[in-house]
Amino acid sequence: MERTAGAPQPDSTAPDPTGRRGQAWAVTYRAPLWGRLGTVTFILAVGDGWLTVDGARCAKHQPGLFFTFDGEALYLRGTVSIYRNISLIRTPDLTPTASD
């Protein structure tokens, strides 16, 4: 399944600071699709001071609540993270390292 960004990224080079908490969120998540787990993955990372999901920058709206620039919500507040209204399952064994 291929995902593409629906809106262009803003030209702003000013980072949206995520603080130390952003590094804790930098992990790979799996999502169930049609009842099958692991068919879709989302990679959260921190780059240039921005929290990104699959390379798309996220703007902080409230603590633990972010939006991509094409309007998709990323909810990281509770025990279950949600992106695009899909529950995410943390996959620490697929977490990107600083050398990736």
Concise synopsis of the structure shown:
With 100 residues, the protein is mainly beta. The chain is 7% helix and 45% strand.
Number of strands: 8
Intertermini distance: 23 Å
Q: Assembly state here?
A: single chain
Give me the strand/helix succession: HEEEEEEEE
* Order of strands across the main sheet: 1-2-3-4-5-6-7-8
* Estimated structural class: mainly beta
Secondary structure tally, helices: 1
Cα-based radius of gyration, to the nearest Å = 13 Å
Describe the global form. Answer: globular
Low-confidence stretches: 1-8
| Main beta-sheet annotation | 8 strands, antiparallel, barrel
Structural domain count: 1
Give the SSE layout.
Layout: H1 19-25, E1 28-33, E2 36-47, E3 50-53, E4 56-62, E5 65-68, E6 73-75, E7 81-83, E8 86-91
Antiparallel strand pairs: 1-2, 1-8, 2-3, 3-4, 4-5, 5-6, 6-7, 7-8
Describe this entry's structure for a reader:
The chain has one helix at residues 19-25; strands at 28-33, 36-47, 50-53, 56-62, 65-68, 73-75, 81-83, 86-91. Residues 1-8 have low confidence and may be disordered. The chain has one domain. An eight-stranded antiparallel β-barrel has the order 1-2-3-4-5-6-7-8. It starts with 18 loop residues before the first helix and ends in a 9-residue tail after the last strand. Helix content is 7%, strand content 45%. It is built from one helix and eight strands. Strand 3 and strand 4 (56-62) form a beta hairpin. By secondary structure, the chain is mainly β.
